[in-house]
């Protein structure tokens, strides 16, 4: 399957500063690798495939421009909780939780984003958005300033047909007959619908971001709520 892991925002625009206070930049020694989003004071959610290669060391929070980062906005990763059944993006379960070395201090520049409270079923053409620091064109490079693009949810049957099958528990939105979607460097960021993080950027088609002929695919967060709750409870007990 011609999927591409890690995926920047195509045909979008710069996000207004302080508009997405939950966004996280997951970084290695070489800089930005993936996106993520703050779901509690000490946990960031992202895609499991962002752990490959295993070089993530830190998370930058509450920052619109990742070029010059204030030390106070950096948190190191204490532990990674990758879904135990994850193998690759083509088989799904592309979800991971990162326990931060110390709690984030929530303020007017940094907030969490809510997850769905129960399993959801998004209607066709539901308007959502995705943001990230990824490429803004095929073969480009990551950008310093956060970018955002509106995308519409695609019917699951259409998505399966266009891909010739997709993993269970995914949401398809953007790409496919539009020039809007994500690209390399956006992976792990949230698909946000009505103020809720409903999806995680998982994969697109063959690194072709400008004119994608397949829908973009996201992990459906609502299908993993029991797993998420288990991890959060387990870590609280051990504190």
Automatic annotation (TrEMBL):
Any one annotated GO CC term: extracellular region
Gene Ontology biological process terms from the UniProt entry: proteolysis
Molecular functions (GO terms): serine-type endopeptidase activity
Keyword Zinc-finger included in the entry's annotation: no
Domain Peptidase S1 residue range list: 9-233
Domain of life: Eukaryota
Annotated compartments: Secreted
PROSITE patterns recorded: TRYPSIN_DOM (PS50240), TRYPSIN_HIS (PS00134)
InterPro entries: Peptidase_S1_PA, Peptidase_S1_PA_chymotrypsin, Peptidase_S1A, Trypsin_dom, TRYPSIN_HIS
Transmembrane segments: none
Keyword Protease: yes
Keywords of the record: Disulfide bond, Hydrolase, Protease, Secreted, Serine protease, Signal, Zymogen
Entries under CDD domains matching the protein: Tryp_SPc
Function noted in UniProt: Cleaves peptide substrates after methionine, leucine, and norleucine. Physiological substrates include EZR, alpha-tubulins and the apoptosis inhibitor BIRC5/Survivin. Promotes caspase activation and subsequent apoptosis of target cells.
Protein name per Swiss-Prot or TrEMBL: Granzyme M
Organism in which the protein naturally occurs: Seriola lalandi dorsalis
